[in-house]
């Protein structure tokens, strides 16, 4: 069986490895534009700050590792088209036949049509090449003032990196808060306060209308010119769908797939940032552009191609980050989005400590849990705290994926030891607060 993968990022690389474990005889070929296989895009801001020393350090495995697994690599190769009739991939280096084709073509940074966005000193943060350019620019120009356009995960992590390098940082966001698709106003305020204490300033409900100078000297916000020596455009990403669309596959926000990650052509699969899957709360189609989702999709697609009846489950988009030592974890739907979707919810919120009050060193933690009133199920959570957010958001997400109700969380068995956690965990207390709204 000839299995061809287009895309050498997280989804494509992991698929190739999973496929090889499941089928020792399959002829597996990975076609990718970049010269290397998988690296971690989430680590890129930490390369800018210097926490990770070199861009090359975020490459997961060298190309030789895949070759030893008898995976054929066609890197630095551009795919021109897919001929579904003849079952071949047409590249700038010739045609590649397939029995099963996997589209792991990822996403691209969305750059809004801002005047001057192509000027020197304006960057996106999506690839290793982006990081190399930013680091070279910083080394040469030694910027003192950075403006970040967009307050999503990448924008905030980029802002943190610039601040750690000693720059004065301003984040400009069109919405009324940071991380607007992941946090409600109350939890977003906690993150904003922490970042402001580390020298990052914010302007909400505003946009950058022009970038002035090349190299950049200022940005225009409304009619005001704000000095800037470097600009990061972090206004989200868009799924790469052009190749699939040209091949006649069904495309919406992303490449539409079924529960087995097959496209409208059953011999072609789509995984990772480019695939449009199902939202675990609303049941509507959505994108899940997270590294963890990419790996899970890779595993499911490999299993299905190998003949196993495995399905990709609806997503809750569980995510976590750390900004200046503050951990932020989220999944599912926000309270604000639930209202827009017409979902009646009961919300519980608790602010406490990560350790018992009598034990020294505890850090503040805020837990917000969101339950759907119609069936009492957990459909979202937001946790902001100084430590151990990861374990709690993972626990709640896992419970939500299994259909847990408010009572399940209230009476959850948790672990306790004074140096680690309180007797009554903050997640159960938050659930108790929500339970009152059902009575």
UniProtKB/TrEMBL annotation:
<dbReference type="GO" id="GO:0016491">
    <property type="term" value="F:oxidoreductase activity"/>
</dbReference>
<feature type="domain" description="Pyridine nucleotide-disulphide oxidoreductase dimerisation">
    <location>
        <begin position="324"/>
        <end position="423"/>
    </location>
</feature>
<dbReference type="InterPro" id="IPR004099">
    <property type="entry name" value="Pyr_nucl-diS_OxRdtase_dimer"/>
</dbReference>
<protein>
    <submittedName>
        <fullName>NADH oxidase</fullName>
    </submittedName>
</protein>
<dbReference type="InterPro" id="IPR050260">
    <property type="entry name" value="FAD-bd_OxRdtase"/>
</dbReference>
<dbReference type="Pfam" id="PF02852">
    <property type="entry name" value="Pyr_redox_dim"/>
</dbReference>
<dbReference type="InterPro" id="IPR036188">
    <property type="entry name" value="FAD/NAD-bd_sf"/>
</dbReference>
<keyword id="KW-0274">FAD</keyword>
<comment type="similarity">
    <text>Belongs to the class-III pyridine nucleotide-disulfide oxidoreductase family.</text>
</comment>
<dbReference type="InterPro" id="IPR016156">
    <property type="entry name" value="FAD/NAD-linked_Rdtase_dimer_sf"/>
</dbReference>
<keyword id="KW-0285">Flavoprotein</keyword>
<dbReference type="InterPro" id="IPR023753">
    <property type="entry name" value="FAD/NAD-binding_dom"/>
</dbReference>
<feature type="domain" description="FAD/NAD(P)-binding">
    <location>
        <begin position="1"/>
        <end position="285"/>
    </location>
</feature>
<dbReference type="Pfam" id="PF07992">
    <property type="entry name" value="Pyr_redox_2"/>
</dbReference>
């Amino acid at each position: 069986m000839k299995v061809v993968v287009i895309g050498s990022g997280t989804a494509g690389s992991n698929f190739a490895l999973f496929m090889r474990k499941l089928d020792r005889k399959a002829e597996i070929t990975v076609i990718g534009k970049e010269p290397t296989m998988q690296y971690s895009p989430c680590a890129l801001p930490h390369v800018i700050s210097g926490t990770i020393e070199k861009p090359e350090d975020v490459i997961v495995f060298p190309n030789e590792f895949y070759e030893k697994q008898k995976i054929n690599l066609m890197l630095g190769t551009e795919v021109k088209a897919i001929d579904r009739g003849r079952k071949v991939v047409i590249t700038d280096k010739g045609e590649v036949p397939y029995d099963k084709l996997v589209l792991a073509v990822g996403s691209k940074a969305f750059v809004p049509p801002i005047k001057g966005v192509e000027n020197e000193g304006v960057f996106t943060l999506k690839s290793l090449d982006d990081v190399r350019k930013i680091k070279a620019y910083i080394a040469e120009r030694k910027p003192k003032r950075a403006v970040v356009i967009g307050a999503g995960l990448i924008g905030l992590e980029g802002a943190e990196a610039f601040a750690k390098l000693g720059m004065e940082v301003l984040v400009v966001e069109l919405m009324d808060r940071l991380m607007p698709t992941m946090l409600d106003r109350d939890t977003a305020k906690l993150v904003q306060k922490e970042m402001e204490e580390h020298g990052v300033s914010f302007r909400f409900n505003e946009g950058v209308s022009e970038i002035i100078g090349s190299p950049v000297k200022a940005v225009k916000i409304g009619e005001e010119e704000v000095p800037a020596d470097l600009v990061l455009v972090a206004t989200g990403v868009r799924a790469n769908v052009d190749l699939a669309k040209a091949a006649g596959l069904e495309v919406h926000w992303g490449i539409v797939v079924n529960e087995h990650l097959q496209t409208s052509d059953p011999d072609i699969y789509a995984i990772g940032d480019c695939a449009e899957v199902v939202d675990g709360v609303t049941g509507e189609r959505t994108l899940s552009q997270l590294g963890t989702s990419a790996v899970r999709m890779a595993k499911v697609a490999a299993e299905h191609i190998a003949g196993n009846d495995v399905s990709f489950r609806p997503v809750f988009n569980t995510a976590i980050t750390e900004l200046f030592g503050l951990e932020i974890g989220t999944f599912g739907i926000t309270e604000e989005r639930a209202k827009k979707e017409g979902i009646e919810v009961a919300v519980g919120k608790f602010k406490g400590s990560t350790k018992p009050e009598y034990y020294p060193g505890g850090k503040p933690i805020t837990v917000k849990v969101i339950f759907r009133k119609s069936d009492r199920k957990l459909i979202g959570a937001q946790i902001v705290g100084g430590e151990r957010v990861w374990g709690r958001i993972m626990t709640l997400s896992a419970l939500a994926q299994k259909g847990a109700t408010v009572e399940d969380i209230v009476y959850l068995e948790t672990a306790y030891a004074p140096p680690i956690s309180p007797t009554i965990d903050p997640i159960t207390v938050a659930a108790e607060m929500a339970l009152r709204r059902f009575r």
